[in-house]
TrEMBL record:
It comes from Pectinatus cerevisiiphilus. This is DeoR family transcriptional regulator. Transmembrane segments: none annotated. Keywords: DNA-binding, Transcription, Transcription regulation. Signal peptide: none annotated. The keyword Transcription applies. It holds the Pfam family HTH_DeoR. InterPro entries: Carb_Metab_HTH_regulators, DeoR-like_C, DeoR_HTH, NagB/RpiA_transferase-like, Tscrpt_reg_HTH_DeoR_CS, WH-like_DNA-bd_sf, WH_DNA-bd_sf. GO terms for molecular function: DNA binding; DNA-binding transcription factor activity. It comes from the Bacteria. Residues 3-58 form the HTH deoR-type domain.
Amino acid sequence: MFAIERQNIILEHIREHGKITTQQICEKFTVSATTARNDMKELEEKNLITRTHGGATLTDRQLIAPSAIPHSFQEEEDSYSFLSREKKCMDEKEHIASKALSYITERGSIYLDSGTTALVMAKKLATMQKKLIVVTHGLHIMSTLITNPDITVIFVGGIVGKDAAYIEGTLGAGIFDNLNIDLAFVSGYGMTIKSGLTDFNPYEVELKRIVVKHSHKIIALVDSSKFDVVSTANFCPTESIDTIITDPKVSPNIIQEYQNKNINIVY
């Protein structure tokens, strides 16, 4: 397990229980006390936790997304599975996907990430008559879109993720050197003005960073539950985002906060 994966599980444990001890980290991950302390140090440097004698607590409990908090270490890992995420905020994802489709033009090239909101978009695109090139590393996205003869799908290869929903790592990333992507539709575990889009999977985050670098415009698909939530790995700074599409449940304070930064937010 990579350090960033371990740190994400540590962070989620603190979010649920309010604290964690060095001993708990050592026992859960079979690591030394030095490794446990280094993990907590890195999380503290990101302003996510506060170290205490023999452990750590959460820095700001407002960063918790209550509906997303699991109840055990095993559930922490399971809660990130594609199937569990697909069932959450379904109405919000439908709203966001419908809004996002209006940005897609005939004969354009787009990138769809492997997220569940992107899958809702893909299902809608699969029924449309619009010539389009779609680049994706999402297995569900690819299998949905290949049924439409008007859509050319470019699939980014690599290592299949553990829940068989997406490709991990950068083995196929060289393909982006030969592509011009008009629009990239991306999402993550959380979104803040300071950190931008963040996610927990270090393998997938690597690929998303490359996508952001090679796309002309970035549209972030962020349902209202993801604002003011931070995960362990940044992949898209706020200043790189052209438009954020969210849902009507978003807080007016959030809207104002982003508008004050001259960030286009659609809901």
